[in-house]
Specification:
Biased composition (Polar residues): 1-10
Domain PAS fold: 36-119
Number of strands: 5
Strand order of the largest sheet: 2-1-5-4-3
CATH superfamily: PAS domain
InterPro entries: PAS-like_dom_sf, PAS_fold
Region (Disordered): 1-21
Number of domains: 1
Pfam families: PAS
Shape: globular
Largest sheet: 5 strands, antiparallel
Helix content: 25-40%
CATH class: Alpha Beta
Strand content: 25-35%
CATH topology: Beta-Lactamase
Number of helices: 7
Structural class: alpha+beta
């Protein structure tokens, strides 16, 4: 009896496990502006210099800022300078230099209206040579007493 063909054996193998985030990452650049705005989390696209290319409405509401005013501005210098630290900006730069990035980490955004504890997922897009920043809300706490 002949051994089963490789293609038959591969076709019977279970598909690799993916998460909803993995599926989104494969499709993000094909989403329209209204589809990006409908996402239940913040999503920002940055070019190689950190300039904001896309900024969804969910993140604008959570951050309490005007989205249109952010487009074209530098995320790290003008919009969220608290992110210009090794834990955030360093990952961004490293991902660009390697042209490969898919990391999730905790971060605290510091606003006048409170501190926002978030989960950040940063991923590099080879197709557009850009970095997408996915921001998942975890909580908002009042700023510390001064």
């Amino acid at each position: 009896m002949a051994p089963p063909s490789t293609s038959l054996a591969l076709s019977n193998a279970p598909p690799p496990k993916t998460t909803p985030t993995d599926d989104l990452l494969r499709q993000v650049e094909t989403l329209s502006a209204s589809e990006l705005d409908a996402l239940p989390f913040g999503l920002i696209q940055l070019d190689r210099t950190g300039r904001i290319l896309k900024f969804n409405q969910t993140e604008a509401k959570l951050a309490r800022i005007n989205r249109e005013r952010q487009l074209g501005r530098n995320f790290f210098d003008d919009v969220a300078p608290c992110t210009k630290v090794r834990e955030f900006y360093g990952r961004f730069l490293n991902g660009l230099s390697q042209r490969s990035l898919y990391e999730t980490f905790g971060f605290i955004f510091k606003f006048d209206h409170g501190w926002r504890n978030v989960a950040i997922t940063m991923f590099y897009s080879e197709k557009t040579d850009s970095v997408w920043v996915l921001i998942s809300q975890t909580s908002v706490t009042p700023p510390p007493a001064r």
